[in-house]
């Protein structure tokens, strides 16, 4: 995945991540995409939704494979992002819609794979979004999530790489959320419970969101397990590494039977 076809490589996140001028950042993101694509292709889904699809890179790469889904839909919040995806990738048989459009009956229980890549770490109230993703899945479908590892030794390495990238003026790394020494120690030795208070920000529309500071993928996995059965945890850049030494983690889950779910 050293290069990307023109329309895919022209995406904002593709340029920032997979094609980043910083070789380490680019390599890390390429490995993350490769791990997620391998998991998705193993499932051979027929109807795929990428929730929070960004510039459509993951969905376009998945649809370009041999086991091409019959339906490939990307959903985003920003109309400008949706228009850009339609302009660059619409001719490839991909469909892009607003997240609000997913409330329509045609989307309910319509997908055997829902992908949610690098989204949940920013969500302030996760359970309602998990209910939404559950409603979009068929009962035999799968949820494929990717989130960053921001605890353990990985945090120390990632903060250093971000800082250096910011000094070099690369990507969106002009600075990083500061940690006190006490917060850093708590993050390095974090378990599966919240370890520090997470900052909450507001966008121009009044929406609330987190940055990466204080995110704990183990806490998220516990929340997911209340509603889904987590079938696999896959790390990147190397799948053999434990999460404490990884930069990202993929979680593959499927809906629990209605009677076994804890509805928040």
Write up this protein.
With 264 residues, the chain is α/β, with parallel strands linked by helices. It has a single domain (6-151, 207-257), classed as Vaccinia Virus protein VP39 (Rossmann fold, 3-Layer(aba) Sandwich), CATH 3.40.50. The protein has helices spanning 6-9, 12-16, 23-43, 57-63, 79-89, 126-136, 152-167, 181-188, 217-225; strands spanning 47-51, 71-76, 95-98, 111-117, 137-148, 201-202, 208-209, 228-236, 248-255. Strands 3-2-1-4-5-9-8 form a seven-stranded mixed sheet, sandwiched between helices. Strands 6-7 form a two-stranded antiparallel ribbon. A hairpin with a 5-residue loop joins strand 6 and strand 7 (208-209). The longest helix is centred in the first third of the chain and has 21 residues, at 23-43. The radius of gyration is 18 Å and the shape is globular. The protein starts with 5 loop residues before the first helix and ends in a 9-residue tail after the last strand. The mean pLDDT is 89.
